[in-house]
Write a structure and sequence with these properties.
The chain has helices at 7-19, 24-30, 36-53, 59-85, 93-101, 104-120, 122-135, 154-160, 175-188, 228-236, 265-274, 292-298; strands at 143-148, 165-172, 195-198, 213-219, 239-251, 277-286, 302-310. It has 311 residues and is an alpha/beta fold. Helix 4 packs across helix 6. The longest helix has 27 residues, at 59-85. The protein starts with 6 loop residues before the first helix and ends with a strand. The mean pLDDT is 95.
Length: 311
């Protein structure tokens, strides 16, 4: 155990560097400029990840190995391609599906690695903290909150714990994803039980087609689509007139299932505006070990966060 102010983070850092000693310098650099508010959310998040890891075969060591696999075998080759060609390698959903989503063993390792990246990678950690510290407090009391594509369920978990959120719903097109989200939230003991639905955002005939929400979150969803503006327009039909939408997209961030290349915060805002939203708040966070100025200049990976309202 550790007597650190952030013991769960220290456990994660320790287990990763135990399995991958060469990564210690990167991790130290990644935590250099995080403020106390970001660290507090990161500590909560790390604790939840450790709780999830305890229910999985291999535990946190398996997740640590999958995190290394993500960095070395998944992200690095895509980054090399992106630097050489100025574009993402995959350009359509069919190819991403065949290579990634239909490959269950690959997706398991990919998702495990991304789970740890929410604490270890500076831009992912800052994005998560911004959702908790900046976006959720903006919501009116009793807000009905929807997340489209909830993934590991961690954003939903924090939304369910917000005092001003009245109800929490998650939609996904994948039965497997819905079950993984449900499992995670059951293990974590979400403060409020979310409603999880198998739902295609573009299905106009779906049950509850006219369901409305005061808050909609789409975190790391739009880059996986060929037409992100169309998805935003479809989501907007479920947002109340005064409701807020939270969008988190990576820019210049190659991955084997990233299709749409967002070139930066301004580009992300343009896509939102083209879909009928007014951006009322935006911020971007650079990848570990660099500044936002350098990241923008050299087209390095950044997380772009935008809050919008319907025009």
């Amino acid at each position: 155990m550790t007597d650190s102010v952030y013991p769960s983070i220290e456990i994660l850092k320790d287990r990763i560097t135990h399995r991958w000693p060469e990564h210690a310098t990167f991790i130290a650099r990644s935590f250099t400029h995080r403020d106390a508010k970001t660290m507090r959310v990161g500590e909560q998040l790390a604790g939840l990840i450790l709780k999830l890891a305890a229910t999985e075969p291999g535990g946190i060591d398996k997740l640590s190995d999958d995190y290394r696999y993500l960095c070395e075998e998944i992200v690095l080759p895509e980054e090399v391609y992106f630097r050489r060609n100025g574009r993402y390698r995959v350009s359509n959903f069919a190819d991403a599906n065949a290579e990634c989503y239909a490959n269950a063993p690959f997706m398991s390792r990919y998702m495990n690695g991304l789970l740890l990246s929410n604490v270890i990678w500076a831009n992912h950690a800052e994005a998560f903290a911004s959702f908790v510290n900046d976006y959720l407090p903006r919501l009116d009391a009793g807000a009905r909150h929807l997340e489209i594509g909830p993934g590991h369920g961690l954003f939903l978990f924090f939304a369910a714990g917000a005092a001003n959120v009245g109800s929490v719903t998650g939609w996904d097109i994948s039965p497997t994803s819905i079950e993984k989200t449900r499992h995670a939230l059951n293990v974590l003991g979400a403060p409020r039980r979310p409603t999880l639905k198998l739902r295609d955002l573009f299905d106009a005939s779906a049950e509850g087609e006219h369901e409305q929400f005061e808050s909609i979150a789409m975190s790391e969803i739009l880059e996986h689509l060929e037409d992100p503006a169309a998805a935003l327009r479809a989501a907007g039909q479920h947002l109340t007139p005064e409701g807020l939408i939270f969008v988190n997209v990576p820019a210049n961030s190659p991955a084997p299932d990233h299709i749409y290349l967002f070139e930066g915060l301004d580009h992300a805002a343009e896509v939102m505006e083209s879909a009928g939203f007014k951006v009322i708040h935006s911020v971007d966070f650079p990848m570990s070990g660099t500044t936002i100025e350098r990241a923008r200049k050299h087209k390095l990976a950044v997380s772009c966060l935008l809050t919008g309202k319907r025009c």
